[in-house]
Amino acid sequence: MDVLFRNVKELVERAENEDKLISEIMIEQEMLITQRSREEIMIQMERNLTVMEEAVEKGLKGVHSVSGLTGGDAVLLQAYIEKGNTLSGALMLDAVSKAVATNEVNAAMGTICATPTAGSAGVVPGTLFAVKNQLNPTREQMIRYLFTSGAFGFVVANNASISGAAGGCQAEVGSAAAMASAAIVEMAGGTPQQSSEAFAITMKNMLGLVCDPVAGLVEVPCVKRNAMGASNAVVAADMALAGVTSRIPCDEVIGAMFEIGQSMPSALKETAKGGLAATPTGKWLESKIFGGSVVGSGR
Amino acid sequence: MKFKSVFDIIGPVMIGPSSSHTAGAARIGRVARDLFGRQPEWAKIHLYGSFAETYKGHSTDVAIVGGLLDYDTDDERIKTSFEEAAEAGMEFEFIPETGHTDHPNTARVVVGDSRSEMSMVGISIGGGKIEITELNGFPLRLSGNHPAILVVHDDRSGCIANVSNCLYKYDINIGHMEVSRRQKGEMALMVIEVDQTVDRAIMDELRQLPNITQVTRIAD
Q1: Using CA atoms, how far apart are residues B14 and A180, in angstroms rounded to an integer?
Q2: Does the predicted TM-score (pTM) go above 0.80?
Q3: What is chain A's mean pLDDT, rounded?
Q4: CA nearest to B175 within chain A
Q5: Given A210, A283, B199, B212, which is the most exposed site by the fewest CB atoms within 10 A?
Q6: Strands B13-15 and B42-48, how do they pair?
Q7: Which of A42, A117, A147 best probes binding to B when mutated, by most B CB atoms within 10 angstroms?
């Protein structure tokens, strides 16, 4: 199958040689592969954007999961921002609270858009709806934010993994955060190369992150990892826009993520057998929620 | 390239909490129903690896049953699929297995009714994307790099020619094809990897061909 890019190097080169945005290369590749019109593709992505907006709104009103492990933190954060004396800044905490809002909705079995997965669905929309207030993008630029994120995610999914069961949390929230930072850079007017630097800087700091969900639920620590993923994305975008570069090229960072995922023990890859899931409190929560036994039919 | 569309990455729109364990699981259930051709009366679902360890927390069970009821990943009824299944008269059982499989998220779905039975193995490879790796004991050897369709047919002469002629008519190139059968003259399978996407109209036309029992898209 013919594609316009197989790795970040090809993606950035094509964008810079043709003087196009990364989002544009992604749109053109989607048209090529699916043989659909630009309009159809843009409409489908706008639908995804609307789902993300609705999830954030719902989460900011306050939701709680069935297990009771997560919910309500997005509301706490917004109330704290309102007071106006945050330490990390209003934009940063806004991104964090909106990422949390999305994942709280996800944990409560609400409707979300996977970006790239459900467990990591908060980072891309959380950062988007926060930087939106500062950069005042058009609706089309907001849709393009998702194509830029998707272009980098496409490379990771095909050259490494976006599955916690296969590569740990670095493959999920790590990928989501790196995708988001690349998209922030484009929206802020940075170059394609700066997007790739932001991606590399974010991913490097997510390497090795394990997937250890308490009771196997996509709640603890997933919701807060989305929060920290969002903050990583914003900081790395600022670093790249300032001209900071990654010594290890983007594609090699993705390669390292894959290798680390391969050598990670299965107890730390979404089996709920290691890490935080295996702590005394993690185990106690599991037995409290599922009554000790997870074997049997039905529920 | 296993992931071909940007919407494999930004998407699907789905009911939470997990793209691989909820949305992917719903898709595995739905493909099983599609291949069976009707709503089964019963289902036995064997779960392996991470599916076996975390299926309750991820609502994998609810999602697979939802898929068997033909619900898409964003169908709100997934949440109440157990009740819906009871109403629809479909019995189900989940069996967590300890055996090792090639992929950590593997489910073997065995479905049936008074007329027939079917067994299928699906894997959830991340972000809601799935692959079908086995049907009724036949391994489906897909590269995963191209769109693929599965054709179940009676083992009669002309079937393979008819299917390939139909694809040729729409300028769809076959990149890889495997044919297999259980016994001479009995059920047979074609797994066809193509270079272009096979749309709904072509799928319908394939279904109308003589001796074809089922046509399903198994990789996009």
Answers
A1: 20
A2: yes
A3: 95
A4: A1
A5: B199
A6: unpaired
A7: A117
